[in-house]
Amino acid sequence: MKIAITQGTVVTASGTLSADVLIHGDKVLALGQPGSELTTSWAAGADRVIDASGKYVLPGGIDGHTHMEMPFGGTFSVDTFETGSRAAAWGGTTTIVDFAVQPKGTSLLAALDKWHEKADGNCSIDYGFHMIVSDVNDTTLKEMAACVDGGVTSFKMFMAYPGVFYATDGEILLAMQQAERIGALTMMHAENGIAIDELVAQAIAAGKTAPLQHGLTRPPELEAEATGRAITLAAVTGAPLYIVHLSAAQALDQVTEARDTGQNVFAETCPQYLYLSLEDLARPDFEGAKYVCSPPLRMREHQDSLWRGLRGNDLSVVSTDHCPFCFKDQKELGRSDFSKIPNGIPGVEHRMDLLHQGVVAGELSLARWVEVASTTPARMFGLYPRKGVIAPGSDADIVIYDPQARQVLSAATHHMNVDYSAYEGMEITGRVDTVLSRGHVVIDAGEYQGRAGHGQFLHRETCQYLS
Ligand code: URP
Ligand code: ZN
Ligand code: ZN
């Protein structure tokens, strides 16, 4: 099967170019000058020609932080790999990297097997895994090496959630030492969970039970402190570090300082921290519960710092931390106690659009949009140049994006398996038109043509910023 994408503007991490793209099977075969003899012959010989005039042609988005079917807060996130990967495709994401969860007292490899079972045969797009390490012991440390051999080259640890995923500084140090030995990336949820739990207990005891308290009991200082501590532990062990879902300007300062000294510290932020705020957590009638995630949404003032961090590369990646819980019956578990609201916000479908909105608003260049949403995640998570770029030999994961289209985000029209949208009513300029995953058309001019089971597990290399 040969597909020619003609007359579009190819956007790469280094700029834009007018180019036709020829796809053969599941790979990009060549790029060529539109209207030339060569590309005219491609179109003539293709099984299908997709006219991309007036549209961008992008490498498919890579969302490096999702939680499908994740057990959390006494319930499970509601997107399965089938529904979540389909929603991702609708939004121009062609790869997800989901977090396999090691429950305390179990083995990493058993957790990995379980995640393979959940995803295998169900995904519309390609997928990889990170591993959540919640139990550090001799067996776990050995199993980290086996995970790397199995294509899972990054390990998330938590300085938050005591009694659930929390790891002590000593455990983090041991895991980082092992990560350094085996070339793996340590990902850190950096919030001081011990101090936060005291603030939460004080708020509940004082009868302060509304969702806003979730934000007030997790102040930015406790994210910054944990970020600094994680950076120190990484420096002592020589391990590379990736701070997940960074939300606060003070935490970003810690990352910037470490990067300025040349330390291998990277960070991602998420669309919710760029667009939503404590004001959403303060919505009346328990509506604020829809916005409970950790770290929490911050005061609006943090958003300028995050956009600036993205432009200057102290924030290298935008992932969604997609962790959807329905308002009904799930978020409602915390009606009388905010600490019982399952933490997480849905977003896997909207990341490319929300970042394009940043382009429209002048916060990011087109090239930087593609870089933070596709090319850098590919390199960060060992997938480049198979993913993250449109170049001969790369997987034909391609998004044709209409920058002029208008849309309004809403639970009534989204494809995530969740009963609300955190961005309800938000107007977006730009929309995904057509999506290819390894040369197969998954979204065809706004129609889903994909298939659960098309998506393949990605055996990832180690982080490509280190080699
Ligand atoms: O609130 C969040 N972020 N839920 C998902 C779990 C995590 O910490 O990433
Ligand atoms: Zn986290
Ligand atoms: Zn997460």
Note down, in words, how this protein is organized.
The protein is an alpha/beta fold and 467 residues long. The chain is 32% helix and 23% strand. It has 14 helices and 21 strands. An 8-stranded parallel beta sheet has the order 8-11-12-13-14-15-16-17. A 7-stranded mixed beta sheet has the order 3-2-7-18-19-20-21. Helix 4 runs parallel beside helix 5 (169-182) and helix 5 crosses helix 8. The protein is globular and about 75 Å long. The chain starts with a strand and ends in a 19-residue tail after the last strand. One zinc ion (ZN) is lined by residues 65, 67, 321, 323.
Q: Strands, helices and their partners?
A:
Blueprint: E1 2-6, E2 9-12, E3 15-18, E4 20-24, E5 27-32, H1 37-45, E6 48-51, E7 56-59, E8 61-66, E9 71-72, E10 75-76, H2 81-90, E11 93-101, H3 108-119, E12 126-132, H4 138-149, E13 154-158, H5 169-182, E14 185-189, H6 193-205, H7 212-216, H8 220-237, E15 241-243, H9 249-260, E16 265-269, H10 271-275, H11 278-281, H12 301-312, E17 317-318, H13 351-360, H14 366-380, E18 398-408, E19 427-437, E20 440-444, E21 447-448
Parallel strand pairs: 1-6, 2-7, 8-11, 11-12, 12-13, 13-14, 14-15, 15-16, 16-17
Antiparallel strand pairs: 1-4, 2-3, 4-5, 7-18, 9-10, 18-19, 19-20, 20-21
Helix pairs in contact: 4-5, 5-8, 8-9
This protein binds N-(aminocarbonyl)-beta-alanine and zinc ion (2 copies).
The site of one zinc ion has 4 residues, from loops.
